[in-house]
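User: My instructor asked us to take a sequence, write out its structure as tokens, and then describe one feature of it. I'm not sure where to start. Here is the sequence I was given:
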Amino acid sequence: MKKRRLWIRTIILSVLVLAVGYSLYANFTKDKVQKVAIGEMAPDFVLVDLNGQKHQLSDYEGQGVFLNFWGTFCKPCEEEFPYIDNQYQHFKDKGVQVLAVDVGETEFAVRQFVERHKLTFPVVIDQGDVQAAYGINPLPITFLIDKNGTVIKSHTGQLTEAMVHDFMKQIQP
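Assistant: Let's start with the prediction itself. The structure tokens for your sequence are:
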């Protein structure tokens, strides 16, 4: 009986040690995700919007790009979209483009969200490649890309209308 109890305790202890070891490993390696560095060229990508139009980041050279990663499930994303859309109306004829990259949800869900909020800027859906290239986590996160394709700033978290205005002013050519 004592031998059996010793084996059970050894197995339980082993499982606990493995769980703690895995947790430590996961925490120490999660920061190794390559996030785009300020001052570096933004990774180029091609994604298609809800109208079937192709958007390649490098095609916007000469213009500032407000690159926003979001999800329909993200409440802060939903709250900042009216501000982004208002400022897009103000800056779109001044050389500033908005690209809103959904993080891999269904086209149906994204289309319903866009229609419900009457968004006028391009919305594209990424299945993970662009998110990986930019090191996206958590949402929302916005990258400011200047007319030369250089990332000049990133912001994680919800934006106010004043912040959106300031950010678009910073990337206006």
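For the description part of your assignment, you could build on this observation: The chain has five helices and seven strands. Try explaining in your own words what that tells you about the chain.
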